[in-house]
Specification:
Rossmann fold; seven-stranded parallel β-sheet; six-stranded parallel β-sheet; 16 helices; 15% strand
């Protein structure tokens, strides 16, 4: 079976790396599964892309479509045009997409229009919030997918409710956790850790990029002010997403214990997370990593596509009302935050299960 693996943006790379490793391992044992790696170039900042390939041991892609920049529609169209040409020149039996970024949606549509089967890794997750671009990407991708690889029983049920037959649903676990577990011993202290003389468990990590949190400067300012007031003077590390960086330029925020930084590499960022007191975020993927590391996580959203991080893990949905932040942080200082545990099948062997299934298809 010939497969095209698609990676486009930062969240994809951690999910695709273990699949590549599993395909290579299977090939050594006589498997007939081979792959071609297509990087759409959706993320083009070095720390948002290249460093992840280097740190996770992802080989050079067979092609980089270089589709960075532009509006949602422009980027989707650009990826579709270039990916169609690539697929026509390099026909395969299956296109495997991961996650819920623009590349996931665009490449799935192209493959199906060329009558090529599609497999979706991390299928079936839903936030219920169609104002999120990722939710649209998930819904459309799953509506045309042939094989669904899922991270949870909730995702399985979401797919069944939409009419997907059980024989096309494969509950395999979470490839992002495969990457995390494989690299835990390789986490790398970022320069800022030593510069600020940080100590384990004595600082917070913040990431914000959702439109509902960062697009309105006044709202963003209130969120940050509230976080800082609840931090009790502990350092607050804020690696700033490019989207958020533009908004921060128009806000006058000055706290001696607030430290902004450029986006970090995978190994450096997770070093910060692993040693933090807690993480305050509006990201989905980070809530999975904090759950596996046992780090308290406050999510500034009203819904999540990863409910297992709340029901089983260390994550809590705080909502977008800044008033909810202070009592949540107080629970952490009081030692009353839940402990959490690893969700079912998050054991570092997901990619092996995926490749084993692909061999049988």
């Amino acid at each position: 079976m010939r497969i095209t693996l698609v990676a486009g943006a930062r969240p994809n790379f951690m999910k695709i790396a273990p699949i590549i490793d599993a395909v290579k391992k299977a090939a050594q044992n006589g498997s007939n599964v081979s792959y071609r790696l297509v990087h759409t170039g959706q993320h083009y900042d070095k720390n948002m892309s290249n460093s992840f390939f280097e740190e996770l041991g992802i080989p050079e892609p067979d092609v980089n479509l270089e589709c960075g920049g532009g509006t949602q529609a422009e980027q989707t169209a650009n990826i579709m045009v270039k990916f169609e040409k690539d697929l026509m020149q390099n026909p395969v039996d299956l296109v495997l997409v991961v996650g819920d970024v623009t590349s996931t949606l665009a490449c799935s549509i192209v493959a199906k229009k060329l009558n090529i089967r599609v497999a979706h890794v991390e299928a079936g997750i839903r936030s219920g919030d169609v104002a999120m671009p990722e939710e649209i990407n998930r819904m459309v991708t799953d509506s045309i997918t042939d094989y669904f690889f899922t991270t949870s029983q909730v995702a399985n049920e979401n797919l069944r409710k939409s009419g997907v037959e059980d024989k096309r649903i494969f509950f395999v676990g979470n490839t992002m956790i495969d990457s995390l577990l494989k690299n835990m011993h390789r986490l790398k202290e970022p320069a800022i850790y030593k510069q600020l003389a940080l100590a384990a468990g004595e600082y917070f990590v913040v990431t914000l990029h959702r439109p509902s949190n960062v697009d309105n400067p006044d709202n963003l300012k209130v969120l940050i002010n509230t976080i800082m007031q609840g931090s009790k003077g502990l350092p607050v590390l804020f690696p700033v997403h490019p989207r958020t960086a533009q908004k921060l330029k128009n806000i006058d925020i000055q706290f001696p214990n607030l430290h902004t930084a450029d986006p970090m590499s995978y190994l450096e960022f997770n070093y910060l997370v692993k040693n933090s007191k807690a993480v305050i975020t509006d990201s989905g993927g980070i809530t999975e990593e904090t759950t596996m590391m046992g780090i308290p996580c406050l999510t500034l959203r009203n819904s999540t596509e990863r409910p297992e991080t709340v029901t089983v893990g260390t994550n809590e949905l705080i909502g977008t009302d800044p008033a909810a932040i202070t009592p949540a942080i107080r629970k952490i200082f009081d030692g009353k935050w839940k402990k959490g545990s690893a969700p079912e099948m998050w054991d570092g062997k997901t990619a092996e299960r995926i490749v084993s299934i692909l061999e049988k298809l």
